[in-house]
Design goal:
The complex is a heterodimer of chains A (409) and B (136). Chain A is an alpha/beta fold and 409 residues long. Chain A has one domain: Alpha-Beta Barrel (TIM Barrel). Chain A has 18 helices and 9 strands. In chain B, strand 2 and strand 3 form a beta hairpin. Classes of the chains: A alpha/beta (409), B mainly beta (136).
Chain lengths: 409, 136
């Protein structure tokens, strides 16, 4: 028998050694099995790879020779040229997964990612990068374009073409509208591509006329556009007053989504592109109550500043889509229920895990909501996303009926 | 079914500061010696069911203020906390109460020390708990 002896006074002596990944997720398998989550389709709209672990593969995809030259000798140096993500995300080592074991940070192998998804009861996932979520802040626009384009092509070749359980919204190099349009035209019909993503922290406003061809191209192809929240701790005069990762994380993820959402609605983009679907990721749900009420209130007093609108702002909001993670835990469940009501949650919310990042959500978080009926739970966990991304929900659903946890992996 | 008692180990093998994970049937149970008091919890975080009993144990972090109420530093106090490795939900190891919201608690498991031997009480199909290695 092994008994772990702990020195109760010092943090250093108390670390339990890392266990293999399947053991750390064992509780996730159990949570899914207890609820029968393997028997119906679950789509995770926001899952991450750590793409900088595979820069040797990505760098050769850079078509701009000058920039490829820069990274060719030491591909890992491309990671050093990304805007930095500050912050003690693991709270002084309290939060840990195998990503903290040297050499295995993140989920580097596709088969491990698929295995982890199966453990959690997730059938399909839309994957996003991690460090490159900050690429929109890069001061050299040509670097954003070069790395974004290379990442997209690498992702199609190495993840999407061979793995039907994985989908992606590709990176839009939004600081260069013409380059962004090129990505939609060249890659919009590649296998596994279900839309395009704007990383939220950036300088470029979405209403600029230069983006209209990008929106038109997306609308024409039936491809949604997504906005993924992020933090901007050092360069924002508001956020750089915050002294905890807790507060900057709480504020910035919704803040940059709010900025884009406000601009999109008030500049009438949903009226100009009525068939284009808008998605917002990783800001939780509580910000939506603020957005809906605040915009309606201002609009009633100043409608001439939003002359393209034919309805109240909140009505456009209720037709957009939102990843649920990190879903808040209010003390009173009826407050969360109210959020679902404000934004038409049962049809507009899409389950998102954010796995393997530090604040990931399991599907059980949605499944356990007492105010949703079984059909609504399945909508948020999968049906809404499958429908949005034009995937055959009923067919996938029939293939899973009766599946148990042990049959998944 | 009435809970049954399962032998864990002699108390002499489990001094202050020890931790042990045992599996009783389908349930993993973390057993801890906190300053001489033996406590046990199900290995399921109240948040999302994470493996809380495998998490770090450390003195609760306290911020130090001087008489002018300026922050001058911080230290780990002698109140021991158990932190779920999935998302950082933090519990008082002795009481099982969440330190951010004491209305939330870990599920306590009955544990007794009798004649120098630690026993847990739980429902299970087997009499002998299987020891889960807390580390490799």
């Amino acid at each position: 028998m092994t008994v772990e002896h702990l020195d109760a006074r010092t943090a250093e002596a108390l670390i339990v050694d890392m266990r293999p990944r399947e053991d750390l997720l064992a509780n996730a398998r159990r949570e899914a099995a207890m609820r029968g989550l393997h028997s119906f389709p679950i789509f995770d709209v926001d899952c991450h790879i750590i793409e900088t672990m595979r820069l040797k593969e990505i760098v050769p995809y850079i078509s701009n020779e000058a920039i490829r030259d820069r990274y060719e000798t030491v591909p890992e140096s491309a990671a050093l040229n990304l805007p930095s993500a500050y912050g003690d995300k693991d709270v002084a080592g309290r939060i840990y997964r195998d990503e903290h074991v040297p050499g295995t940070r993140g989920v580097p192998r596709v088969e491990d990612l698929l295995n982890d998804m199966g453990t959690m009861g997730i059938n399909h996932a839309c994957i996003f990068p991690t460090p490159m979520l900050a690429l929109g802040e890069h001061p050299e626009v040509e670097v954003e374009v070069a790395l974004g384009q290379a990442y997209n092509r690498w992702l199609v070749d190495h993840y999407l073409t061979e793995n039907p359980r994985l989908r992606a919204m590709l990176y839009l190099p939004f600081n260069d509208p013409k380059a962004a349009l090129r990505e939609v035209v060249e890659l919009g019909d590649k296998p596994g591509v279900v839309g395009f993503l704007v990383t939220s922290v950036r300088r470029t406003p979405v209403y600029h006329n230069a983006f209209m061809p990008v929106y038109a191209a997306l609308e024409e192809r039936g491809l949604p556009i997504g906005f993924h929240g992020g933090v901007n701790w050092t360069k924002s005069s508001a956020s750089n007053q915050l002294n905890r990762f807790l507060t900057v994380h709480a504020l910035d993820f919704p803040l940059y989504n709010l900025i884009h959402l406000f601009n999109i609605i008030i500049n009438g983009l949903p009226e100009r592109f009525p068939r284009l679907k808008w998605l917002f990721y990783e800001a939780g749900l509580a910000w939506l109550a603020f957005a809906a009420m605040r915009l309606d209130h201002e609009y009633m007093m100043r409608p001439s500043e939003a002359p393209q609108l034919k309805r109240k702002p909140s009505e456009y909001l209720r037709e957009m889509y939102f990843g649920t993670q990190p879903m808040e835990y209010p003390s009173k469940m009826e407050h969360l229920e109210m959020l679902f009501d404000i934004v038409n949650g049962p049809s507009q919310f899409l389950y998102a895990s954010d796995y393997p990042h530090w604040d990931f959500d399991l599907p059980s978080k949605i499944y356990d909501l007492p105010f949703l009926n079984e059909a609504e739970k399945r909508q948020v966990l999968g049906k809404n996303a499958y429908t949005l991304f034009n995937l055959p929900y009923d067919e996938i659903s029939a293939s899973l009926s009766g599946t148990t946890a042990t049959e998944v992996n | 079914m009435d809970p049954r008692e399962y032998t864990v180990c002699p108390i002499t093998e489990f001094p202050e500061g020890s931790r042990l994970l045992v599996r009783v049937g389908d349930e993993e149970v973390g057993i801890f010696n906190v300053g001489g008091q033996i406590v046990a919890y199900k290995n399921r975080c109240a948040h999302q069911g994470g493996p809380v009993c495998r998490g770090r144990i450390l003195g609760r972090w306290v911020e130090d203020l001087n008489s002018a109420k300026e922050v001058i530093g911080g230290h780990h106090s002698s109140d021991m906390d158990l932190v779920c490795p999935w998302h950082g939900w933090e519990y008082d190891l002795l009481t099982g109460k969440n330190i951010a919201d004491p209305s939330i608690s870990l599920k306590a498991v009955d544990v007794v020390v009798r004649d120098g031997v630690i026993y847990v009480r739980a429902e299970s199909a087997t009499r002998t708990p299987e020891v889960v290695p807390a580390h490799e």
